[in-house]
Amino acid sequence: MAIERDKQGNIKWSLGDRLFNILMLLLLGWSDFLGKSQKGVGENG
């Protein structure tokens, strides 16, 4: 992933990486939500 730093030294993500990170966070959050709503069903957390 391309990570750049702006003049203040903050990490500036490219648009593609930003969208990818948001999608991954949504997927992880959604799967975590489903896992909590279905306690003990299927796999053990």
TrEMBL record:
What's the protein name?
A: Uncharacterized protein
Q: What organism is listed for this UniProt entry? A: candidate division WS6 bacterium GW2011_GWC1_36_11
